Every structure is written in structure tokens, then in C-alpha cells.
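USER: If only I could read C-alpha cells as easily as an amino acid sequence. It would mean a lot if you studied the pair and described how this chain folds. Here is the record:
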Amino acid sequence: MSVQHAVVVGGTRGLGRVVVERFLARGCGVSVVSRQRPADFPKQTGFRHFAADLEHTEGFAGLWNRIAEAGGPVNYLVLSQRFRGQGDPWAGEIQVGLTASRDLIEGFAAHFTETGDRAIGIVSSVYAEFVGSSQPVGYHVVKSGLNAMVRHYAATLGRRGIRVNAIMPLTYLKQESRTFYETNEKLMDTYRRLVPLGRLGTAEESADALNFLCSERASFINGQCLFLDGGVSVVWPEEVAKSFAGL
């Protein structure tokens, strides 16, 4: 059986890095795309890093050709990138979140394997459906656009057997922010009261969802945007307000 090839864009930190670890644990060959390779990244057979700047189209032009040439045809593509530049946040969010995602999907589309399991997993957000003051308008627009992109490519690439799905996580605990949340008891208590499951999720749980969607076990799941919010989205806001008011 041939080794499956997974590409993770934005796979050097946070959720993306955990996704990389999940693919490696499955025995996949993994190609990671980011601005630069962290010094503590694994050095092992089947693992490759490709530097690319998604803020500029010329910064990743032909990336899919280089990755396919080095690692072979692709089985899985995960888009986990986020704009973190210093420029105009609106233009940056649109370029990195939407334009680059479209270009990457269409570029890699010609390099998926002809047989075997094939899927694209996209990291969206609950802010694709709801408004949060902690994120700028561009972030909301991008996440909503990504959900529309999931449906479009699920219909068009699905004809070739390539599934396209997304996850929409609520705020979750990850290595980079875990201490901040866990040492803020007032904030953690707020989430315990807000989330029906009584806690925040973790990057590992979001990675497990992507790992499932990008596997043979999800062979008939296509065009779905999955809430990972512990049930927050099913509770009517009036009930939340009553709970916090002690009514």
C-alpha cells in the first residue's frame, strides 16, 4: 500500500501543528507550508517543509508543483493559515484567508491522486455564522467566504472523488494560549457556564475532527461545515442571558 501524502498549510503552530502530528502518526508523508520552518520541527523521512508567503500571490506561485514533485500526488490538503501581518488587516485577511485558499485549492486540484482517499479540510470558525467583537470584520467575512468555498468545491471537486469539508471551532485551548486561559479563573468560569459541555475544547480535539474528515472513515461526508463548540450554537441567546443573570 502506498504512503498517503498530506499537505498542511499553516502547520507550524497551534492547531495546524497538531494536525501535522496526527498525519505523521498515521504514517503519512507530510508537506508543511509556512513562512519559515521552526527549529524544533521534526526531521524525519517523509516530512518536508516549504517556505511560502501567502500575503503575496507571487510568494507561493507554483507551490503545488514543487510539493507534488517532491512528495508525489496529494491525498489530503488542510488549510489552516491565518493572516498575522502588519499591513491593512482587511486586505491581509482577504488575501491570506480567501484568495490564497482559492489559489491553493485550484492549484493542488491537478495534483491529487487519481485513486484512493482524497479530501480537503478547511479551518473556518464559529465567526463564519456569528459575530464576535474580538475579531475584525475581515476575519468574519473570510470565514463566511470559506464556508461558501467549501460548498462550491464540494460540488465541483466532488465529481472527481475529492471531498471538501470544514471545521468551525469555538475558542479552544492550544499550546500558545493555554496558560493565559487556565490562569484566568473568571474567564474559564464564563466558558464553563456558557458551553453546554462545561469546558473549552482543545486544539487536539479540533485536529482529531480534521484527521477524521481527511480519512477513509469520512468517505461519504462532503460539503459540510462542522461546529466544534461544545453545543453553544444550539442554545438560544435568551437562555444564555437568563443563566448569566441567575434567572
The two ends are 60 Å apart (CA to CA). The longest helix spans residues 89-109. The mean pLDDT is 94. The CA atoms of residues 34 and 141 lie 23 Å apart.
